[in-house]
Specification:
With 415 residues, the protein is an alpha/beta fold. The chain has 14 helices and 14 strands. The protein has helices at residues 7-10, 16-29, 48-60, 74-88, 104-115, 130-138, 163-168, 189-201, 240-243, 258-269, 277-288, 292-314, 341-352, 378-398; strands at 35-36, 98-101, 121-126, 142-147, 169-174, 204-208, 234-239, 252-256, 327-331, 354-355, 357-358, 369-373, 401-406, 409-414. It has a seven-stranded mixed beta sheet, sandwiched between helices. A three-stranded antiparallel beta sheet has the order 9-12-11. Helix 5 (104-115) packs across helix 10. The longest helix is centred in the C-terminal third of the chain and has 23 residues, at 292-314.
């Protein structure tokens, strides 16, 4: 008889996309052709010059075939610092204030293990990217959820954190542009409140800024470190996954407080050897080369966003138009709210083959919503919404309300 796995792992809820995958398999068995708007998995290829840099590095630099260093190549850390200065006008010490990561998911989880103990609290928004919540549970830490509500523009209310919890908090996590809601901050006001909260309560701020470059309609996402005092209290995480469509390459970085990054580096040094050298060299090419790809991919996501939002409106489902990220976050249509978001996503998938991410998978305050990922081309998105419209009409018929099209609208007829 094998021993049981740890209680922390046992107590974790099933990972959202693992549950969805089992439903997807059933839909395929039923013969459905899937259109997958569930996972934020970029569908565009990595820039050609980045791929070429990797191939050249593998062929010509045999040192990259050896174990890498956990702290990353000096050349990469310097390129990150230079990019950060160009983008945010913040100067970083490449030797102490930059740490490459095996993806921001890994980096955030390792930060929690570096700092959190069972007696501490972590302040985590809800809804949130699942690792923000699940990684804290794996540490055994107490989690205090900060509701992100539509009426508050999906921003956390730090004043609502109970004093007793605030005093025991070790980590305050924020994420803007936000996954899954697509919410943004207009200025540094929220970050300023976070810094003051950290100073008052002795915790550190972790800002997940993975979507800073996927912004539309003239919006430019700020950095937490643009605050003069921010570096005293926290770190910021960035990723190559979305900006350069390098999700499968597993490379990201953290910047900010040297002491925090030093401790994170120490923790990581016991667990991994760092990022393969050829991938690091390719990442340098991404940062130092032409940024035309970033403009192009942002335009692609903006066009897909516009098609999705307009098409959903035509079938009677109005959703907000996000100014950043690769997601659209929508409240469930009225007839479906009682059944919950997972039930809605499951029925839509099994009936029409369209995959969306149920809001409950992002935490309890995500219930009542679904997330669409803009990872299919415009024609496929239009087809997905046609199927969604058919699904909505059939569901209304089940409730005694049948849809009849007139022009681009749907008339609801009581029976």
């Amino acid at each position: 008889m094998l021993p049981e796995c740890s209680k922390a792992l046992t107590d974790l809820p099933p990972y959202l996309f693992v549950k969805l995958n089992s439903v997807k398999e059933e839909a395929v068995r039923r013969g459905l052709q899937l259109i997958d708007l569930g996972m934020g998995n970029p569908d565009q290829p990595t820039p050609a010059h980045v791929v070429e840099a990797l191939c050249r590095s593998v062929r010509e630099d045999t040192s990259t075939h050896r174990y890498p260093q956990t702290k990353g190549l000096a050349r990469l850390r310097e390129a990150i610092a230079a990019w950060y200065h160009r983008r945010f006008q913040v100067t970083l010490d490449p030797g102490r204030e930059v740490l490459p990561l095996l993806g921001s998911k890994e980096g955030l989880a390792h930060l929690f293990f570096t700092y959190l103990t069972p007696k501490d609290y972590a302040l985590i928004p809800s809804p949130c990217y699942p690792v923000h919540y699940n990684a804290t549970l794996l540490t055994g830490t107490k989690v205090h959820l900060m509701p992100l509500k539509e009426e508050s523009r999906f921003l956390p209310d730090l004043d609502a954190v109970p004093t007793a919890v605030a005093r025991k908090a070790k980590v305050l996590l924020v994420n803007y542009p936000n996954n899954p809601t697509g919410a943004v901050v207009e200025d540094l006001a929220l970050f300023d409140r976070c810094a003051h909260f950290a100073k008052k309560n002795g915790c550190l701020v972790a800002h997940d800024n993975a979507y800073s470059e996927l912004a539309f309609d003239g919006y430019r996402a700020p950095s937490f470190l643009q605050l003069p005092q921010a570096r005293k209290y926290g770190v910021e995480f960035h990723s190559f996954s979305k900006t350069y469509s390098m999700a499968g390459w597993r490379i990201a970085f953290a910047v900010g407080n040297a002491e925090v990054l030093g401790n994170l580096y120490k923790f990581k040094s016991f667990l991994d050897y760092g990022i393969p050298g050829f991938i690091q060299n390719a990442a340098v090419s991404a940062l130092e080369g032409s940024q035309d790809y970033v403009s192009k991919i942002t335009q692609t996501y903006r066009e897909r966003r516009d098609v999705l939002v307009a098409s959903l409106r035509e079938v009677g489902w109005t959703v907000p138009t996000p100014r950043a990220t690769m997601y659209v976050w929508g409240h469930l249509p009225e007839p479906f709210r009682r059944g919950g978001s997972f039930r809605f996503a499951e029925r839509l998938l099994l009936q029409e083959g369209v995959v969306v991410a149920p809001g409950i998978g992002f935490g309890p305050f995500g219930e009542g919503y679904v997330r669409f990922a803009l990872v299919e081309d415009k024609s496929r998105i239009e087809e997905a919404v046609r199927r969604i419209g058919r699904f909505l009409r059939s569901a209304r018929c089940e409730r005694g309300r049948c849809g009849r099209r007139t022009g681009s609208s749907v008339l609801l007829v009581e029976h």
